[in-house]
Specification:
The protein is mainly alpha-helical. It contains six helices and three strands; from the N terminus they run ααβααββαα. The protein has a three-stranded antiparallel β-sheet with strand order 1-3-2.
Amino acid sequence: MNATPQTCCEGAALETHDLGARLHVALDNLFHQKKPAEREAVCCHDITHNQWTLLHMLADAEAGPLPMGVIAREMRLTPSGVTRCADPLVERGLLERCMKEGDRRVCCLALSEAGVALHATISQDCAIEDGALLDAFSPEEQEEIVRAMEKLARAAKEFSS
């Protein structure tokens, strides 16, 4: 069997691919195990997972209300899909519609006080469940794991931007 020798760069790419594959499996397994707990925390408040994603996105919005087009891009939905997702939340008083300052043609969404409260409740329930995952580790390992996940989340956000 004739094997072609690998160059230094090919070996590095292969190692990166192997690490990427391992990371994919690890994240997939983690999310698969976590989903039932998060689904329980979300569904018991009579909202869908997409509606939770929307609430969470608006809670994280530092610049205030988000335009529907931005939300659609971030959630990978059509604008009409965002409207279908948001309408029940607006009707329940969890979201508020407003117009963008300076351009009244652009519809934006923001959390209402009730939406902020619901987001805090669900986040707290999820944090308690997620915190239990760390119980098997020492305090030093817990801190290391959380810092690595925060760093990975920042990298993922920068990568997708």
